[in-house]
Amino acid sequence: MADIALIDSHAHLDYPQLADDLPAVLARAGAAGVSHIITIGVKLSTADAPKKIAESHDNVWCSVGIHPHEAGNEPDACNIEAIRAAADHPKCVAIGEAGLDYFYDYGRPDQQAASFRAQISVARELGLPIIVHSRDADEDMADILEDEMQRGAFTGVMHCFSSGAALAERALAVGFYISFSGILTFKKSTDLQAIAADVPLDRILVETDSPYLAPTPHRGKSNEPAFTAYTLEKLAEIRGLPVAEMADITRRNTQNLFSKMVLS
Predict the structure, then answer these.
(1) 155 contacts 130 by C-beta, under 8 angstroms
(2) What's the total number of domains in the chain?
(3) Is there a domain that residue 264 lies in?
(4) Starting at the edge strand that comes first in sequence, how are the strands of the sheet with 204-206 ordered?
(5) Does residue 262 lie in a domain region?
(6) What pLDDT, on a 0 to 100 scale, did the predictor assign at position 264?
(7) Under 8 Å CB-to-CB from 247, ≥6 apart: which residues?
(8) What pLDDT is stored for residue 105 in this prediction?
(9) Are 77 and 118 in contact (CB under 8 A)?
(10) Which DSSP string corresponds to 219-256?
């Protein structure tokens, strides 16, 4: 895979599982053909960590945002000025991850929605895409995306997609991208694989969400950007395309969405 250039569109390089061995993690990523990585912010209070990693590595970019799990405890979860200020960085290419997560009871739905809408507002204002986390909240998520799009256009991606086909269809209808993680490689992910078979080719991204959700054959272990290759291979198999062509497609899509990235 080293002769194929991939982009891991969503990793958490500042988390200890990766940060404690970052030079080796990045070296393994490069050896696996992963040329660029976006490291994702989940709290404004820790936003400096992914920024510093991006500053230190030419092939790493970053986002700033408030994960829905943090919507009830981050002081600036709905502070548009604070979110805007945090995003004022030359290597910040997106807002988020933001969204709704009803699987865990870490934040009330109204708190999550308010923070999500605040981050959409900043993304719209700055012309940056928003990275969306959605779990067990399909209907509310689709409703918010459609409602906010009526207030003014913005772009984004449904990251680590594992929701239903209806949410995929509604997200695509408002112009969003769909990003697939290692979940796509799991044997029981037949419904997700069916969704991946139908998403327009110009709307597909790949990611790891590392250190979580390692793909087969590394399931249950700590995930890392090098493993993007396994998700890409599965996606190519599902779509009946050569791996190299699928790599080119997802790379181009990632560049189109995260247009602030300048790839060497």
Answers:
(1) yes
(2) 1
(3) no
(4) 6-11, 34-39, 60-64, 92-101, 130-135, 156-158, 177-180, 204-206
(5) no
(6) 65
(7) 4, 5, 6, 33, 232
(8) 82
(9) yes
(10) TTSPP-GGGHHHHHHHHHHHHT--HHHHHHHHHHHHHH
- 263 within domain boundaries: no
Distance between CA 255 and CA 187 in Å, rounded? 30
Contacts of 56 (CB under 8 A, 6+ apart): none
Q: Which amino acid is at 58?
A: D
**Beta strands at 156-158 and 60-64: parallel, antiparallel or unpaired:** unpaired
In the structure encoding, which two tokens stand for residue 23, read together? 């030079």
Closest CA to 196 of 184, 188, 212, 187: 184
Q: Please check whether residue 184 lies inside any domain of the structure.
A: yes
Q: Which residues of 78-95 are buried (b: 16+ CB within 10 A; e: fewer)?
A: bbeebbbebbebebbbbb
pLDDT at res. 224? 98
From residue 181, give the alpha-carbon distance in Å to each of 68, 83, 146: 19, 27, 24
- State the Cα–Cα distance between residues 193 and 224, nearest whole angstrom: 22
Tokens describing residue 88: 């004022």
Q: Which two tokens stand for residue 214?
A: 């390692």
Q: Which two tokens stand for residue 165?
A: 């086909």
| Per-block mean pLDDT, blocks of 10 residues, the chain (264 long) | 84 97 98 97 97 97 98 97 98 98 93 98 98 98 98 98 98 98 98 98 98 96 97 98 97 97 80
The domain that holds 106 is classified in CATH as 3.20.20.140
Amino acid at 87: A
Q: What is the pTM of this model?
A: 0.97
What are the φ and ψ backbone dihedral angles of 87, each rounded to 5 degrees?
-80, -5
